[in-house]
Amino acid sequence: MSDDLLAWADAALPEILDDIEHLIRLESPSHDHAAIARSADLIAAIGERRIGFAPERIVIDGVSHLRWRIGSPDPEVPRVILLCHHDTVWPVGSLETRPFSIQDGVLRGPGSFDMLPGLVMALHAAGTFADGRGGQLSDAAITLLVTGDEEVGSITSRALIEQEAAGCVAALVLEAAGDDATGRPGALKIGRKGTSMYRVNIAGRAAHAGTEPEKGINSLVELAHQVQAVLEFADPALGTTVVPSVARSGTTTNTVPAHAYFDVDVRALLQDEQRRVDEAFRTLTSVTGATLTVTGGINRPPLETSAATGVFVRARAVGEQLGMELPDAIVVGGASDGNFTAGIGVPTLDGLGAVGGGAHADHEHAYVDEIAPRTALLVALIRDLLQG
């Protein structure tokens, strides 16, 4: 069966590459809802060919998401959810300077690593179960969910993700793989930091900077105090980072600035740490007499390793049956939709998509020779999980 699965994946590779090319050439930046809608149209057409039927189209606040449910409709049967997103960080027109190409076994273009290959791999893998090649689903089910706003925080799709994942035996996330501690590519991800985002707004009092500065309350001075205060919330030993990122204050050089704000990015490996920092932000107090208002909060909970280790052990065993030696799994700072599924208690394994590098960068790329075996691995892992 392993040889048959690898042979199928090798034979399917030209079609997989063709589907990836079409998606990359279309372009689908997160903030362009019209582009996301066009991308959803194309994915629905590709999926109908590969899976055999059209998806449900779910539009939330203008953002287009797609859902396929394959197999038994019985909610009590074992079910696996495949998580993908079709939005990218690249604006329309990026192809002009980063054209699609396949040269010397390397695939390039906007979204060529994060995460259009993983999405296409999921479509082809799901298709093997829809027609019975991957396994029979008379007493099991697969949900394939393709969302359109992952790169901007999954604001419209979070509830949908959590709803579809609830009760699943596992969530498999088709984000790109990483490099292990030795630099070897292809590592699956068993941990992701949770993300929180804050804005600290400061209301002071304006005054003339030359004639009566003492009558003002300088919001920029308060900002400096508060930046130093929030830096103390970090705990490097536990992997908790607190990074002030964007700041603004003032109107003219001869005016005591009345208003200021700064944004802060927080990452944590543990939910307890995420909650601790959130509580700390709520207790900030002014040093200069300015008024502080904190907005924002926890966006994604961490994908803790306890949620992923069991699925990774099974993936490694399945890989060995296919003749694949998977690198050691890794924990990364970036978040994904797998954070949501882990946060509601669903065993979650991430990084099952493309092998390559350069996410969100000009050198974004994926290795072609890794696509077929990784697609075979995905099919084999789904089968193993559904068989219990």
TrEMBL record:
Transmembrane segments: none
Pfam families: M20_dimer (PF07687), Peptidase_M20 (PF01546)
Active site residues of this protein: 87, 150
Gene3D superfamilies per the UniProt record, alphabetical: 3.30.70.360, Zn peptidases
Domain Peptidase M20 dimerisation: 190-284
A molecular function GO annotation: metal ion binding
InterPro entries: Bact_exopeptidase_dim_dom, Pept_M20_glutamate_carboxypep, Peptidase_M20, Peptidase_M20_dimer, Peptidase_M20A
Domain of life the protein comes from: Bacteria
Keyword terms: Hydrolase, Metal-binding
Listed PANTHER family: ACETYLORNITHINE DEACETYLASE (PTHR43808), BLL0789 PROTEIN (PTHR43808:SF9)
Protein name: M20 family metallopeptidase
Source species of the chain: Microbacterium stercoris
